[in-house]
Amino acid sequence: MNPISSSSTLNSLHKLADTCPYDFSPPAGGAYTDGFLGAGGDLTVATLLHAYRSGAFPWFDEEDPICWWSPEVRCVIVPSDFYPSKSLIRTAKKQPWIITTNADFDAVMNACRAPRRDTSKTWIHDNMVLAYRQLFKIGAAASIEVWAGMPYDSELIGGLYGVSFGSIFCGESMFHRRTDASKIAFWALMHWAHECGIQLIDCQLENPHLMRLGANLMPRDELLESLQDLVMTPCLGISGASMQMPCIDLTNSPK
Predict the structure, then answer these.
(1) Residue 127 CB neighbour total at 10 angstroms
(2) Which of 71, 95, 118 is the endpoint of a domain?
(3) What does the angle CA 4 – CA 13 – CA 30 come to, to the nearest 5 degrees?
(4) What is the average pLDDT across 153-179?
(5) Do 162 and 85 belong to one domain?
(6) Which of 25, 72, 159, 167 has a CB 3.0–4.6 Å from the CB of 235, allowing a cystine?
(7) 3-class SS at 190?
(8) Which letter, b or e, does each residue of 67-93 get, where b requires 16 or more Cβ atoms within 10 Å of its Cβ?
(9) Residues 205 and 85 in one domain
(10) 207 Cα distance to chain centroid
């Protein structure tokens, strides 16, 4: 496994982030009540890295200016706190699915950007795809894929992607084409994060599904304080790593 988040690589990411001219600190008195920090800037590698190490992330429709967010309450999960449901364990035991890391980042992003059933819009538009593809190329983003059978020779049925910086992983989006496939991807993230030294998963926004899987709510001030250490702590990480396992192996992990 390639220690992509080694000290030298992490230092390089911080040097890139240091060139960003923008300030993502919450305004005096805190960010606006909905976590909106402001609009503008760009989606260069330097800007994105500085945003994530500052606890901010971009989220906007394609026709809108770039909007930056830092919610007052953040949804997070410690990998060791994840507990799969009994039904998910049954799925992992009976399905022949294979899980990989970083096998097809572009395919995962393209699947995640597909409009949901209740809307024709997607926030993962062309500019976002190009931006996160650049993060992936420098080892600051990663994907997890769930395949119906052997990788590449079978359908990609689920997955997720996110930004990896030091010992924190910021989940961006996930998708599924078969029931439970995205949950298996999330379980695999917890498994490999625990193995590779990732201390915290930032899920950004609360939703009931994540809360049932073991996520907690963390005040923004607490997250920002934790980030000071997390983004400076090198770990093996999953960015740049090429790992593979059948989903049944998840049921043999300690968690």
Answers:
(1) 14
(2) 71
(3) 120
(4) 97
(5) yes
(6) 167
(7) helix
(8) bbbbbeebbbbbbeebebeeebeebbe
(9) yes
(10) 15
Which of 25, 52, 71 marks a domain boundary? 71
Q: What is the mean predicted confidence (pLDDT) over 187-202?
A: 96
Tokens of 135: 């993060």
pLDDT higher than threshold 60 for residue 2: no
Whole-model pTM?
A: 0.93
At position 74, the amino acid (one-letter code) is: R
Q: How is residue 13 written in tokens?
A: 């990411």
245 burial class (0-12, 13-18, 19+ CB within 10 angstroms)?
middle
Q: Which residues contact 206 (CB under 8 A, 6 or more apart)?
A: 73, 75, 215, 217
- Paired sense of beta strands 141-147 and 98-101, if any: antiparallel
What is the C-alpha separation between 57 and 75, in angstroms, rounded?
Answer: 14
Domain count for the chain, please give it: 2
Q: How far is Cα 36 from Cα 64, in angstroms, rounded to an integer?
A: 14
